[in-house]
């Protein structure tokens, strides 16, 4: 299953695959049985409430007839938005469970898409195959992010764009998590690297032009309960979001890069 490489990196990828086969992203917010239409709707509603910046930053309807690849597509909800906008979409993921769910998601929505279990660090696609490569919440979880970035650039057409997200090491969420000792998702993943702005810039060096924005500011939590959650929801979220944006801009929990080949 794993592409040729050294034994250590193959072991690391096997651990990543095993973890994500058992921890499908945002799974725990769904109340409905896995794989049902309601299950995908619940995960999508949660995601786009938490990441309300996504449709503002990413023009999901702007790629009609273009070829889009989603690396580490999970259950395929973002890719479904591109597909609804008329794009020809391909989703890959290291975890078979995600790919099975992504296929079911598309089938139930009546959308066309091609899905494969594949390692984003070593893809079987030809050079210059896609107009857009999308990769959200994946780079910090993979064994060799630099190999993934090089592969993404390779499969992108000249002049094409990659939209790449990772986690900001110095974010408001990390500070809150340390101060309040709250759980954040996937801290138990075998690999969870977080980046400074400069480290992310240097990871993206293979690209000709890169713009990085900081996003993901506080929204009320739905997954935590008890007094900490009440304190956070009632006394933190509102006042934080009323601070001048220029004061907190660089503390966004997500770095979102638009990188041109
Ligand atoms: C946090 S989930 C994100 C899923 C989806 N992109 C989203 O934003 O909801 C991380 C996903 O990346 C996948 N992944 C991690 N390393 C990968 C790799 N080397 N190649 C392909 N997929 C990978 C995992 O299997 C998992 O489904």
TrEMBL record:
Which source organism does the UniProt entry give? Answer: Salinisphaera aquimarina
Q: What is the lineage of its organism?
A: Bacteria, Pseudomonadati, Pseudomonadota, Gammaproteobacteria, Salinisphaerales
Q: Which stretches make up the Methyltransferase type domain?
A: 69-163
- What is the protein name stated in its UniProt record? Class I SAM-dependent methyltransferase
Which Gene3D superfamilies does this entry report, sorted A to Z? Vaccinia Virus protein VP39
Q: Which spans are transmembrane here?
A: none
Q: Which UniProt keywords apply?
A: Methyltransferase, Transferase
Gene Ontology terms, MF aspect: methyltransferase activity
Transferase recorded as keyword: yes
The EC number(s) attached to this protein equal 2.1.1.-
Q: Is RNA-binding among this UniProt entry's keywords?
A: no
Q: Which InterPro entries match?
A: Methyltransf_11 (IPR013216), Methyltransf_Superfamily (IPR050508), SAM-dependent_MTases_sf (IPR029063)
For this entry, list what GO says about its biological process: methylation
Q: What class of enzyme is it?
A: transferase
Q: Which domain of life is it from?
A: Bacteria
Pfam families (UniProt xref) = Methyltransf_11
């Amino acid at each position: 299953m794993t592409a040729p490489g050294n034994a250590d990196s193959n072991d690391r990828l096997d651990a990543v695959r095993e973890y994500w086969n058992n921890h499908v992203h945002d799974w725990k917010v769904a109340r409905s049985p896995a794989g049902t239409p309601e299950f995908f709707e619940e995960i999508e509603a949660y995601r786009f409430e938490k990441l309300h910046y996504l449709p503002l930053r990413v023009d999901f309807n702007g790629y009609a007839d273009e070829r889009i690849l989603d690396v580490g597509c999970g259950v395929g909800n973002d890719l479904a938005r591109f597909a609804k906008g008329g794009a020809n979409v391909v989703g890959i993921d290291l975890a078979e469970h995600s790919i099975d769910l992504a296929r079911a998601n598309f089938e139930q929505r009546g959308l066309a898409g091609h899905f494969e279990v594949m390692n984003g660090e070593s893809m079987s696609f030809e050079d210059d195959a896609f107009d857009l490569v999308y990769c959200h919440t994946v780079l910090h979880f993979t064994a060799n992010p630099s190999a993934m970035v090089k592969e993404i650039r390779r499969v992108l057409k000249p002049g094409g764009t990659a939209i790449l997200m990772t986690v900001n090491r110095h974010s408001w969420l990390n500070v809150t998590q340390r101060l309040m000792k709250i759980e954040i998702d996937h801290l138990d993943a075998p690999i969870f690297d977080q980046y400074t702005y400069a480290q992310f810039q240097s990871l993206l060096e293979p690209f000709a032009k890169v713009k990085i924005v900081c996003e993901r500011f506080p929204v009320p939590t739905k997954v935590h309960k008890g007094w900490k959650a009440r304190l956070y929801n009632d006394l933190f979220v509102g006042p934080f979001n009323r601070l001048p944006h220029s004061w907190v801009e660089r503390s966004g929990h997500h770095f979102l890069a638009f990188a041109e080949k």
